[in-house]
Amino acid sequence: MDEEMRAAQPTPEQAEQLAPMIAMHARMAMEGEAEGSLRLLARVIAGQLEQDDLSPAEFASYARILSGMRHAEIIALGTFYRSWQEAEKADLGPKEDAVERTANMAYSGKMVPNVVPNYGELKALMSGLTRTGLLIEVPTVDGGNRYQPSSLFHRLSELASLESAAEPAATAQGKSAVD
Asked: Judging by beta carbons within 10 Å of its beta carbon (0-12, 13-18, 19+), is residue 22 exposed, middle or buried?
């Protein structure tokens, strides 16, 4: 948490709002929460502080969402974010779902077999992330599924650097991605 909060200089009023957020983060760390989740939550605090929009209730909501996430799920969030950003920046033409299709294809290619061994495991991983409300599952005409970010995902990405979560080394040293 020190790294994420290093530049922050909270005012006394902000410090009062920060106290329950930092206490919750510390409790989660003592209870053995995954390092990747703790880093994202520290970034949420830093992001709220930077935007001068401290909200212990919003932080608690993200804490509930991110707590218990496996290493692979944290990497998946970051990889999905990166793939979506790349697709939005690309010139994909007029198709309505071009960003969604391109992002999902790129995401799948980055995840299998680097993070998960096969597409069935990827589907299971994505199903877990839709449960959090961060991603929305969209059925395709051929009976498959694609995913798109929810407004909750976008807000989280405004506060915390989700792209850095795509780096396996950033979320856990020496652990398998499927742990």
From this structure: middle
Could you tell me the CA-to-CA distances from 1 to 8, 24, 26, 93 in Å, in that order?
11, 12, 9, 42
Burial (CB count within 10 angstroms: exposed 0-12, middle 13-18, buried 19+), residue 95 = exposed
- Taking alpha carbons only, the member of 124, 126, 132, 137 closest to residue 63 is 132
User: How many other CB atoms are found less than 10 A from the CB of residue 96?
Assistant: 7
Of 172, 178, 174, 167, give the one whose Cα is nearest residue 75.
Answer: 167
Question: Where in the chain are the domains?
Answer: 2-68, 71-150
pLDDT in tens, 52-111: 999 999 999 999 999 999 999 999 999 999 999 999 999 887 777 899 999 999 999 999
